């Protein structure tokens, strides 16, 4: 199952996609946030272009696992996206993904500027890897 992951931030939306078997993931793009309508339109087009059968959105829970303001914003965004696409939408705990993404990019030798430009894509990759790993464990 090919899935599209979304790391929803205040300024940017990072995206990543899995292969059709749900084994590997790769970054797709960072979308600069403009308006809700344009953001949703771009993501709808990505779902279609990439033939994604599911969408996974990172859910920024608090460190104690509680739902805070940021998580509520993501859940509202997920509902708005759900009205535009037919693919199922799932959420995945994204605590510490930005830290992990930065570490991976440093290990790959990306400069600070490159890391800043691509951190949302790499966070989306981690969200998707975590989701796919959990899905395999449940099977």
Write the layout of secondary structure elements.
Elements: E1 3-8, E2 12-18, E3 25-32, H1 36-49, E4 54-59, H2 69-82, E5 89-93, H3 97-107, H4 112-138
Parallel strand pairs: 1-4, 4-5
Antiparallel strand pairs: 1-2, 2-3
Helix pairs in contact: 3-4
Question: Can you give a write-up of this model?
Answer:
α3 crosses α4. The mean pLDDT is 91. The protein has four helices and five strands. The chain is globular, with a radius of gyration of 14 Å. It is an alpha/beta fold. The chain has a five-stranded mixed β-sheet with strand order 3-2-1-4-5, sandwiched between helices. 47% of the residues lie in helices and 23% in strands.
Quick recap of the structure?
The protein is of the alpha/beta class and 139 residues long.
Number of strands: 5
Task: Summarize the helix and strand pattern as letters.
Answer: EEEHEHEHH
Task: Quote the distance from N terminus to C terminus.
Answer: 14 Å
What's the number of helices? 4
Give the low-pLDDT segments: none
Helix percentage? 40-55%
What percent strand?
15-25%
Structural class: alpha/beta
**Strands side by side in the biggest sheet:** 3-2-1-4-5
Mean pLDDT over all positions: 91
Please tell me what the overall shape is: globular
Work out the radius of gyration. Answer: 14 Å
